[in-house]
UniProtKB/TrEMBL annotation:
Cross-referenced Gene3D superfamilies: Leucine-rich Repeat Variant
The keyword Kinase belongs to this UniProt entry's keyword annotation: no
Organism: Quercus suber (Cork oak)
Entries under InterPro entries matching the protein: ARM-like (IPR011989), ARM-type_fold (IPR016024)
Coiled coil (residue ranges): none
Protein name: Armadillo repeat-containing protein 6
Keywords associated with the record: Repeat
PANTHER family named in the record: ARMADILLO REPEAT-CONTAINING PROTEIN 6 (PTHR22895)
Presence of keyword Translocase: no
Length: 335
């Protein structure tokens, strides 16, 4: 006879289980059913899987063996990050800031390993909230690394959005925090690149977060960067173009009608479409040529969809980008 069902929580994605309940089940297999540790672990995994329990984010190891959960590199990284700066935040030493940067970079790397489950483990153990707190700390030294780690957490391991982590990001005030950081660091390429990576990751497949960023005037910020007269950074910020494309992609299957058409109109109205066209005029020498082309195509696609739906004159706001410009770069030939 198999072990009794452990306490689990029902969710839309399936039933979940806590790390403690999982560990207790493995211990029960060892102590009550006299299984060897490896067999006990495999039986617990198989039993829970057959019961429809989602083990995402669970550290599947034998409790106490080899250090157990605490020996997991992701857990160790999070535990150390919690310690750093937790007491005297205004008096943190440079060596601690250096260690924090190293840990955040390590966390980003681990969460980006496909198939490892590390991003889910970090999310289940408070990683999103923790990294957001480091971003809000105001330590400029750690901002770029913290944003990079946050983007990895939100993307998960296969460069797709993780709805659990993005919801935590939303409820933790993440959109406001990130947009404020971007506004305050418009000349820092590393912060901009990693910050817009967060915008892109959080907005993927999430209409609510798309709306949040639009309400925070992310479009105006993008336009400010694209129209920077120095032009020193915009070509290097590949994630900015990714953010434009994703904000204008109706990829949230939880909603009946996406708002991205309105966002595309707004982007065109404030001059983003024209700025993208201008960036392409630099030709093959432009470092952002491919990314800018893809972003521009996203706007063009929504423009074409709008023309099919209505002839009410709304497309007049697109006229600040001449049709000749669109055709000259071949963006509309398929639409």
């Amino acid at each position: 006879m198999g072990p009794p069902k452990p306490p689990a929580t029902a969710t839309k994605a399936g039933r979940t289980i806590s790390q403690e309940a999982f560990d207790d089940l493995v211990k029960e297999n060892i102590e009550d059913l006299e299984m060897d540790p490896t067999e006990a672990l495999q039986d617990a995994i198989q039993t829970l899987t057959l019961q429809g329990v989602d083990l995402t984010g669970i550290v599947t190891c034998v409790p106490g063996e080899g250090g157990g959960v605490k020996a997991n590199p992701v857990i160790q990284c999070l535990d150390r990050l919690k310690q750093l700066g937790s007491d005297l935040e205004d008096q943190i030493e440079q060596k601690d800031l250096d260690e924090m940067v190293e840990l955040l970079d390590k966390l980003a790397e681990m969460c980006g390993v496909e198939g490892s489950g590390n991003a889910a483990i970090a999310t289940k153990n408070g990683g999103v909230e923790l990294v957001c707190s480091k971003i809000r700390s105001g330590w400029e030294r750690v901002l770029a690394s913290a944003l990079k780690a946050l983007a990895s957490l939100l993307h998960g391991e296969e460069y797709v959005a993780d709805l659990q982590s993005t919801e935590i990001f939303r409820t933790s005030g993440g959109p406001t925090t990130v947009v404020c950081i971007l506004n305050d660091n418009c000349q820092n390429v590393d912060i901009l690149n990693n910050g817009f990576s967060v915008v892109a990751a959080a907005s993927t497949g999430n209409e609510v977060l798309k709306e949040s960023f639009m309400e925070l005037k992310i479009g105006e910020l993008i336009m400010q960067i694209l129209s920077d007269p120095s032009g020193q950074s915009k070509g290097s910020i590949q994630s900015l173009y990714d953010a434009i494309r994703i904000l204008l992609t109706p990829d949230d299957n939880r909603v009946v009608a996406s708002q991205v058409y309105g966002y595309a109109r707004r982007f065109a109205k404030i001059g983003i479409a024209r700025a993208l066209v201008d960036s392409l005029h630099a030709g093959l020498s432009s470092p952002g040529l491919v990314s800018a082309s893809i972003a521009l195509k996203a706007i063009a696609k929504e423009f074409a969809a709008a023309k099919k739906k209505t002839r009410s004159g709304e497309e007049g706001i697109w006229q600040d980008v001449s049709i000749a410009d669109w055709h000259s770069i071949g963006m509309l030939k398929d639409y």
